[in-house]
Design goal:
The chain is of the alpha+beta class. The protein contains 7 helices and 18 strands. The protein has a 6-stranded mixed beta sheet.
Amino acid sequence: MLYSSYSDNNILIQTGKWSPEGAEHITESFTVLTLTDTLMPFDSQTDVLLSTLSKVVEANGTPVLMRFFLSDPANQAAGLQKKIVFDCPVSIIGQAPLNGSKIAAMVWCRESAAICRIGGRMHKVTERGIDEYWYTGGLSASDGSYNQTVGLLDELSAGLEAQGLTLESDCMRTWLFVQNIDVNYKGVVDGRNTVFDRHGLTPDTHFIASTGIEGRTADCRNKVMLDAVAVKGPGVAVKYLHGDSHLNRTSEYGVRFERGTLVEYPDRRHVYISGTASIDNKGKILYNGDIVRQTNRMIENVEVLLAEAGCGFSQVGAMTVYLRDIADYSAVKKIFDTRFPDCPRVIVQAPVCRPGWLVEMECIAIY
């Protein structure tokens, strides 16, 4: 991965670019945009960020995923949506950037991808004869996190089946953003288990890579928001990552997701690392109350998963780091600045699914 970082018009732009070995041009890139002037009002921060984002897209190709992180979605999401001009998969989530800004963004671009909307929440991305289906911003009007999770996963499944795919065979990655996760996560887990049972996703088969994390939307009635990606095409192979030396199988403590997924294409590999925290291979939280040791163990766990996929941190395109306590920001930022000075990343406030976990991270690698 070729990294660059620079500031322009009060925006810090961190980019990781990848190209096939021997190629003379970049084919995929990740860019994280964060404000350096955090005193501007939200509208001004948004205008500056979107203007810079347009330049990033113009330079790097088709955006296949945009995710915006907001400090106060109830007052910000509607205004942001009105200003977004990109018809691509867009995810807007209430997870406050911990540098003090009101908005941050991450965008994944591909040079030669073609994209079209095939439904209100789904886009089809076609590249090299392979189709990706991105489902973003899934919301439900049902009561409670259990019913919302079931409804959203059923909607995703129906959308995939309409395109000749299935949830169990072709969905590679999900993100479940949960309002008040300490209260509502059990409903999410139970709802996902219900749907997975219907689709034959059991400890004896496989699950889907996932992050389940605190995240708010503009409407407090939305307990859950769902994003997902599925892949279908010739020559695509899938390997599920476990990291057995450092992590246990999630089903051992009642949840169902894979620690990571390696998607192999004829000419490249994408590695989706699920939300990963300071855990051992017995499912135990390590280093209770110690943010530094938890952060270092979390990074070690991710490194094990990346190695199982055949790569390392130098192939990571972007990272998202989630903190329960904003008071831990300086300590965590120092660790990431020291260990990964060039890799695009955003650190946001978002409690993890167990209160004892102070920090969690996810990432995507290409090699």
